[in-house]
Amino acid sequence: MDIPYNSEFIVNFAKAENSKNILKSNDNPKSSYELKKATQNFEAVLLNMVLQAMWKTIPESGLFEKNSATDIYEGIMQSSLSEEMARNGGIGIANMLYQQISKE
Question: Is residue 93 part of a domain?
């Protein structure tokens, strides 16, 4: 499996690691805001991966030139869209994780 090593990958990896560290820390009981944010970040990373995979299936029309600027724009757009989706309910992963973790 080829792992893409670019800025999108680094941002997604950092978000996932931050969420994992918050959720795994055993020091103080975590506030509900920290838990909610960590679960939303986790869902945003998953949604971003889904959006990237879906975006690759769209055929190129040739209307716009494909270059590094469009790649950067598409990455930012996908990242922003996935974060917004996660903040507004997404596909429900964040809520289920939050409910499960807050019980413990």
Answer: yes
Q: What are phi and psi of 63, to 5 degrees?
A: -65, -40
* Cβ atoms of residues 39 and 101 within 8 Å: yes
How many other C-beta atoms can be found within 10 angstroms of the C-beta atom of residue 42? 21
Judge whether 3 and 9 are in contact, CB under 8 Å.
yes
* Model pLDDT for residues 24-83, shown as the tens digit of each residue: 665 555 678 888 888 888 899 999 999 999 998 989 888 888 888 888 888 889 989 999
CA-to-CA distance for 96 and 3, rounded, in angstroms? 28
Cα–Cα distance, 30 to 51 (Å, whole number): 30
2, part of any domain? no
In a domain, 1, yes or no: no
How many domains is the chain partitioned into structurally? 1
What number of other Cβ atoms are within 10 A of residue 55's Cβ? 12
